[in-house]
Amino acid sequence: MIVASLRMNLYLPGSTSLKEKRRLLKSLQDKMRNKFNLAVAEVDRQENWQHSVLAAVSVSNQRNYLEKIFNRVINLVDDMPGIELMRSETIYY
């Protein structure tokens, strides 16, 4: 069994309030959950209007499957309007 986590530092340049930030992040989190069946949470920078750190976790018996899923997640984030991926890190356990 392989557990993998993807940590993403995000920048939301157009966000002017926590309410707007949470709306953008909720949309992204819902897409990640529904499309890829991931556990997703905001894990840092919760009170900052324009920055966030999201983490996604998945379990599989194949590392290459997890790599493909996380690459697709990164592509999804890159395609989201109003959200810029600043940095990502994947850890396998």
Can you walk through the features of this model?
The chain has 93 residues and is α+β, with helices and mostly antiparallel strands. The protein has a single domain (2-92), classed as 2-Layer Sandwich (Alpha-Beta Plaits), CATH 3.30.70.1120. It contains two helices and four strands. It has helices at 18-36, 63-79, and strands spanning 2-11, 39-44, 51-60, 84-92. Strand 2 and strand 3 (51-60) form a beta hairpin.
Distance between the termini: 9 Å
CATH homology superfamily name: TT1725-like
> Which percent band covers the strand fraction?
35-45%
What is the number of E strands?
A: 4
**Secondary-structure class:** alpha+beta
How many DSSP H or I helices? Answer: 2
Largest sheet: 4 strands, antiparallel
Oligomer: single chain
The radius of gyration is: 13 Å
Residue share in helix: 25-40%
Compressed to H and E, one letter per element, the order equals EHEEHE
Features:
single chain; 93 residues; alpha+beta; Alpha-Beta Plaits; four-stranded antiparallel beta sheet; 2 helices; 4 strands; elongated
Reconstruct the topology from this structure.
Elements: E1 2-11, H1 18-36, E2 39-44, E3 51-60, H2 63-79, E4 84-92
Antiparallel strand pairs: 1-3, 1-4, 2-3
